[in-house]
Amino acid sequence: IYTSKNTLSLHDALPICEAIEGMGYAIPITEAMPILEDLMTKVVRNKVAREDKGYIGILGYSSYDYMYFNGGDVPYGVYVDSVYDDSPAKEAGILEGDIITKFGDYTIETMTDLENALWYYAKGESVVVELKRMDKKGVYKSHVTTLVLGEVQN
């Protein structure tokens, strides 16, 4: 890795084939720095045991699936199709139609992102959830809530 005032350069010195000895990439420092700062400040979490895994209580899917089937332009994240009664999501004020964009330290763009993030949070733990909620004018606005994860229902 080489840095200059304006770029971060990554060089791979491994031979790829006889005709090409290596590969190089240059990334504008303005794009690389936010990612590096996020990595440097991110809290390292360990996966929790299956029996300790937290539960939200929603039926959701990736928002781009929603766009594909319903049309319209929605933010990337997890579209909340329904919120289960007596669930942590219901208690935290998450509504049908909300789009979860961040869960704790994890950026959420797909349902898989949310499912993977849940493996790092235990039942009973408080998690800050960032979401987008459509207002009466049809514009998505940022909303933040905290939920206490429940126990996984069988």
Structural description of this entry:
The protein has helices at residues 29-41, 63-70, 88-91, 111-118, and strands at 2-3, 7-12, 23-28, 54-55, 58-62, 78-83, 99-103, 106-107, 126-134, 140-148, 150-151. The protein is α+β, with helices and mostly antiparallel strands and 154 residues long. The strands form 3 sheets. Strands 5, 6, 7, 8, 9 and 10 form a 6-stranded antiparallel β-sheet that branches. The mean pLDDT is 84.
The radius of gyration is: 20 Å
Helix content: 10-25%
Tell me the strand percentage band: 35-45%
Oligomer: single chain
Q: N-to-C SSE series? A: EEEHEEHEHEEHEEE
Q: What is the mean predicted local confidence, pLDDT?
A: 84
Separate helix tally: 4
- Structural class call reads alpha+beta
Unreliable sequence segments: none
What's this model, at a glance?
With 154 residues, this protein is an alpha+beta fold. It has helices spanning 29-41, 63-70, 88-91, 111-118; strands at residues 2-3, 7-12, 23-28, 54-55, 58-62, 78-83, 99-103, 106-107, 126-134, 140-148, 150-151.
